[in-house]
Input
Amino acid sequence: MSERGYAATGISAISKSSGLPTSSIYWHFESKQGLLASVMERSALRWIADLERAQDPPGNPAERLGRLLVRGFSTFEERPPEFLRLAIFLSLERSDDPKLVESLRRVRERSGRILVTALEAVFAEAGAARARQVAEECAHFAMALCEGCFIGHQIDPEQFDFEMLASQLHVALLAIGTDLMTRPTEMSA
Amino acid sequence: MSERGYAATGISAISKSSGLPTSSIYWHFESKQGLLASVMERSALRWIADLERAQDPPGNPAERLGRLLVRGFSTFEERPPEFLRLAIFLSLERSDDPKLVESLRRVRERSGRILVTALEAVFAEAGAARARQVAEECAHFAMALCEGCFIGHQIDPEQFDFEMLASQLHVALLAIGTDLMTRPTEMSA
Amino acid sequence: MSERGYAATGISAISKSSGLPTSSIYWHFESKQGLLASVMERSALRWIADLERAQDPPGNPAERLGRLLVRGFSTFEERPPEFLRLAIFLSLERSDDPKLVESLRRVRERSGRILVTALEAVFAEAGAARARQVAEECAHFAMALCEGCFIGHQIDPEQFDFEMLASQLHVALLAIGTDLMTRPTEMSA
Amino acid sequence: MSERGYAATGISAISKSSGLPTSSIYWHFESKQGLLASVMERSALRWIADLERAQDPPGNPAERLGRLLVRGFSTFEERPPEFLRLAIFLSLERSDDPKLVESLRRVRERSGRILVTALEAVFAEAGAARARQVAEECAHFAMALCEGCFIGHQIDPEQFDFEMLASQLHVALLAIGTDLMTRPTEMSA
DNA sequence: CATGAATGAGGCTTCATTCAT
DNA sequence: AATGAATGAAGCCTCATTCAT
Output
């Protein structure tokens, strides 16, 4: 599924590549959608756990943020997060199963929180409330870039330089954060 | 197709919604993939033409870059570039039809060049050669963010604030460009 | 058609390999069956003309028969008679177009007559009427073998030794003819 | 299939006439070709078993050969060996499925061996080695005639007199065998 | 817990043919 | 004399799913 998309992957293909007969697959997972949901959740949890380990000490906040970004990007090369491919496929396919959509948001939310935490520490000097606000804006930005990188890597793996992008993102986040902090506070954002 | 995904959209559905019988569709476009490629190319050319108009004068380089970014992002909301969805789909599906792959790269290359041109003007003071190098790095970054935004918008349209992201990208690009220019020149990059 | 059978050969395939658009094909030949009939007749006439040339003098009757057989078999290798493939295909496909069936019988009849003529000369000593009777029986036998050889050649071209078969057929025909002539005359055959 | 030809027989027609839905047919036989192969093998084995029974005692070798030929030919009328039609079809269609080609050769080889055995006994007086050689040549001849008869019967059933052809083949084989035995032995043939 | 067998619906594509130009 | 465009019907095959064992 993560290689060809949800609709394009038949149960019988999964059966062939796993050895289990289709009826057994239906015994374990209620339906095609159910199978998908299980697989995605599993892969996502593994990836997130990986990230969470990466933000442990030591170092100052900016260094920790950098390490987190490098870690996130490097998994794209080492062990591409299948769940991300699936997630992107599913969002593009406009799947309308609410369970699935919810699961997707949850994963996104949870990995976003890791970023927010790291960013809050960086912008701590602005005061807790403001730092959180700024961190959240920055996190959105970082997540978008992250997903974009994943796609770029799919399109043309050899042109992609994750290390460079991680360091550019680092620069960008600091600049954006600083910029946000110097603007007049808008409470509505 | 742009609504349900490539694999999930049957030719018969297209036939029904267009009024043409399937055999006529097959006469005009050689196959399902061929249909897709045609549609994508058409939509892409329109989008690119739109962007190209957005970088015309007036204003200084930095302003023009800003306008370009806003213009690009704003279309995501107003008139979502179907070609982007298709393009991303196809890249993830790892289609190996060389014609399609070529078409994809062409579109990507061409929209990238618009960004590069705008960025070159911004960094002109560094000298033509260096400016081009920096502009290209920045363009990669911008493209990745752009694609990421598209996906983010698919997953969670309400949380997305394109205007904000455009301005953040603006800030980020200037910071990244400046950062690159102050580093010791590496010719091999 | 002679390579894949009637039903398996599409008009569009013929169009592609001939350069003419399908509509032009339909202008020249009224239908698929009409095209088939034309092609077959043409190829058959050429082959028969070839055979007819082979039975010209010189030599005694037995020698002329031998030359005829060798000639017939040798074309299987040199220039396989496409009409034969077609004819066999069509007879196996149980085509029920009466025009076609008639055309097939005509061809068969005409090439049979060549054989009969050669055989009559060989058995002339038995008297004209008897010789003709014997010759006709022998011709049936020879035609059957001939068609069988064609098929055998299709199945396993390298195992087939046409020269050998031609000489065996020669021996066989003389033996059968002699055998028939020594039996009590049955007028009803 | 044996009535209308391979290409002209749709799976849906088979489905209709058998009661099974097409998907069930595809579950039992992997493909149209697979179905064909199965059917052919089954029919062939039955026919061969029939022949094998026909060569049992009593009688001298020449009589036994005659009985075998009559038996073989008579099935053409009584219960036409559908496998033969299919087999010929497939050989002419130049199918390149190796499984099918193998199956075809196997059937041909096996029915050929029956003939060889019967012929060996007839020519036994020439010594085992020579008899085998002669028998094999004769068998090729007989097989070709046999296949040719089948086709002739398709083209023009009423003109065909199998009994006559069987007895002619008998005469022919004895003549050819004798002829071969009186020639100087060529070891390389 | 596992699986072989079954199936209706629908997948993409090609068919032979027509017709306006 | 020729052809680009069009089309309904049919082609082979795979789909997700069920169920008796």
Q: What stands out?
A: The mean pLDDT of chain D is 83.
